Structure formats: structure tokens, C-alpha cells
Amino acid sequence: MKKIAKTPAVVRVGVVGCGYWGPNIIRNFSALRDCDLRVICDSNAGRLEPFGRRYPSARTEGDFAAMIADPDLDAVAICTPVHTHYPLAKAALEAGKHVLMEKPLTHSSESAQTLVNMARQRGLTIMVDHTFIYSGAVQKIKSIIDSGEIGDILYFDSVRINLGLFQHDINVIWDLAPHDLSIMDYLLGRAPIWVSAIGSKHFGKLENLAYMSMKFDDSLIAHFHVNWLAPVKLRSTVIGGSKRMIVYDDLAPSEKIKVYDKGVTINGDKSERDKVLIDYRTGDMFAPKIDKTEPLEAVCRHFVESIQNGTTPLTDGESGLRVVRILEAAQRSIERSGERVNL
């Protein structure tokens, strides 16, 4: 792992943004033993006031520049709208602060690359809150894949749909797809070679429904369905392997992962398609035990430990950049009526 500058044993953190996601980050940082939640920042005084009462040991601040000017502050967590990510993270890095960023990293690959370069040049940690990667379920799937138990991966199919929350600054791809793209990036450890996407704008100027397809440099394909206009909430992923297959249902109260000993066996001359015989194999299903630790707790702890140990986070700036590149390519494809966009 790349070594970066170490900081004191207790990492002093400031959080900017007390809207949708910020309160969860604040709660988890405040509970960590090796972390001092030093500052809570939001430009909305009315939103900020309750946090001052709930976390009296933390200073409340309405001015981000004043927060990062604090010489005793080691790190900043940015939980604000996507269009603010780049200027806020850039200012924090220039002030010598480590940065944890809410997904996606930024609104463009150019700005994401700039932040990655800045952090590297300054010996600072930049990490993206790709929360699901830190879940017990995804960690278990990763260990199963790496063991070779499911064989060669043939496809990755994901559905993430619900009724709302409609965003005003980003479309459904930039809002929901980062979760599943980051999971795919982590589990597969490789990048697609092209992306094709289509989407619809039923309300306003932003897509609220989209489908994305991706091709890798072999027979592996991936497909993603994201939707703000569904009657039910679904969070499911199917990973097809040559030996076994995995179904991951994040909303399942138990048995979030099911591994199926199912597949096909090819008989005959594979070079002559009309002579190939396919046999279906059906075996057992098992649901492995998974760690129940809250993923966001693991995110915050990993960020603090990465700073303390001077090590590269699991979801570092480079992983965030890879996701942004795919999002950017998918957006271009939508604007070109589903045309393939090379990565």
C-alpha cells in the first residue's frame, strides 16, 4: 500500500452538510473511540442548531472556510450536493485536510482526477463513501469470488429502484448507480471497455429512469436498472458464474446472500454451435453468515484508520474516479440515444 503522512492517534474531524446523509456520518464519527468530532458545518443555521444541542462537544460553524482554517482539524467529511464536491474538497486539500467524500466523488472525471492528483502530491487521504463495499454482504461476496468458488464470472445484473427520492441537481444515474457501479468495480477488479445507456425524463429536465449496459474485454457483460418511479423498493444483484451463481438482496431481513449450485454443462464440439448439447445442473442453495456491522460505521472507522496508519483506503480517490468515468460515459450515451461510448 502507498504510504502517506501520518497524523496524531486521535483524528480530529469536521463534517460539512447536515441534510440527508450528513447526520449519519456525524453519528458514526461521534461514536468512534479514536476520533474527535470537532466541527459540524452547514450554511443553514436552522438546520445546524439541533446538532449543536445533540453534540455539545463539537463546535457548530456556518462558514466552511472558517472550519478548514482550524489548524487543529485533521480531516473533513463532505456531505453536500454533488456540484459542491469539487470546490469544497479542493479547498480542504489545499488547507492540508484529509477528505472523505459522499458519493459520487465529483460531477466530472476531470475534476475527480484533479482531486486525486492533489491528494497524492500533498500526501493526504482522499476516500469516497461507497458505503455498500463495507457491508458484510459485499465483503462476503468478494471472498466467495476470490476463492474461485463460482468460477468465471459471466454476467453482473443489478436493479436499484424505488419511488423517489427525486433530486434537483443530478439525475437517477448519478444518484443511484454509484452504489452498484462501485460494488461491481470492487468485486470484479476490472473496468468495462464500453458503456451504452438510455433514459427517460418523465418529470422535469433530469432522467428519472435509466438502463445501462457494459461490455468487458471478454464475454462478460453487466447491466444496471435504476429508477425513481417504481411502486416498490428493490435492491438486488445477480452474479452469474460458470460454476455457481449469487443472488444478493440488500433488503432481505435475513439471508441477504444466496449461493446457488446451478448452471449449465456443455457437451459436444463447442466450435460447432448446432452440435452443442446443453445439460442443466441443479444443486443446493446455501446462505452464508455475514457480518452485521453497520456499513457506515465501517466506512468512518476505515477512514480514521487509513489516516492513522498512512495507508490507502479501500475506496480511495482512484476507485471514485473509475466510477465517475463510467457515469460520465453513460450520460454521454444517453445524450446520443444509447450510442456506445468507449472507456
Topology of this protein?
Blueprint: E1 11-16, H1 22-31, E2 35-41, H2 45-54, E3 59-61, H3 64-68, E4 75-78, H4 82-94, E5 98-102, H5 109-122, E6 126-129, H6 136-146, E7 153-163, H7 172-188, E8 194-200, E9 209-215, E10 221-227, E11 229-241, E12 245-249, E13 257-267, E14 277-286, H8 295-309, H9 317-335, E15 341-342
Helix pairs in contact: 1-8, 4-5, 5-9, 6-7, 7-9
Biggest β-sheet description: 9 strands, mixed
Our Rg estimate from Cα atoms comes to: 22 Å
Number of strands: 15
* H/E element order: EHEHEHEHEHEHEHEEEEEEEHHE
* Rounded mean pLDDT score: 94
N→C terminal distance: 26 Å
Strand percentage lies at 25-35%
The parts where pLDDT drops under 50 for at least 5 residues are none
Helix proportion range: 25-40%
What this model shows, in words?
By secondary structure, this protein is an alpha/beta fold. The chain is built from 9 helices and 15 strands. Strand 2, helix 2 (45-54) and strand 3 (59-61) form a beta-alpha-beta unit. Helix 1 crosses helix 8 and helix 4 packs parallel to helix 5 (109-122).
